[in-house]
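User: Could you walk me through two proteins back to back? I'd like the raw sequence and the structure tokens for each, with a short line separating them so I can tell where one ends and the next begins.

Assistant: Of course. Protein one, sequence then structure:
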Amino acid sequence: MEKGERPKIVVISYATFHEERNQLTRSYESKLFEGITFNKGLVSSKYYYPRCTIKNNDIEIEYIDIVKDFYPVPMVKFSAISYFINQIWNNISIKNTVGFPITKKIFIDLQKLAI
């Protein structure tokens, strides 16, 4: 591919959670945050993760520091109301993945390269 040659075949592995991962929804970010903070033994001061958006018909990638930039709902581990608010907020963020906009754009861009 570096020489400009097209491959004879391309295999794409895809699961529905990939859209949530690509958009770095609050729900997915929350899971990453919980995992990172649970494993405090991991030695790294920054945990960057990509967040994709579509702007001007192009995919833009921004790198987010999960530990620094994520704001958990206060008292989420101790209060049923906080936990409920957290779940609602996460569920709203997942609704942005309906229709798989990032994945569709990636596949369209890949198809253009293949033609």
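----
Protein two, same layout:
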Amino acid sequence: MIYQSSRQRTEPPRIGRAARRLLVLGVYLGYAALVGGWALTSTFNLGLPFFLLTIPGALVMLGALAKLYTSAPHRMANETDDRLDERQRLVRNEAFRASYILLAALCVVGVVYGGIAWDNDWLWLPDTWNAVQAVVWGVFLLVMTLPTAVLAWTEPDDLAEEA
């Protein structure tokens, strides 16, 4: 992926598509591991030793976020129009469109699930402050990373791949 910005003098690190996809998976699976460990620890009152098991999930998530946010897809997703060429604007706008569709679909699924779970005791709904926080922070993470994740997942390694 070639990217140039007048704000920076150095070229963003080139990360291959497979590595970028691993970073995207690391962000979301790291968050799932963090929340899963947190939920197990708080639900079963397992104490500090088991809470320490959430640290690897947090480190994976934060490390993947840091690497992804210093890469070209993040910079392209958040650059102003005047600093991008026509192709980059089209790719970025398509990533935002795909992100909006994914987010809208997840919201619809969440509302439908919530409506069904409200009447059925066997379906999970957040019933503690910890569970509500996990959902809220998960939505926040998704909203803040989705355009970059879509770009990182879909962009080829080089523009020559597109031809």
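DSSP finds six helices and no strands in the chain.

Let me know if you want the two compared in more detail.
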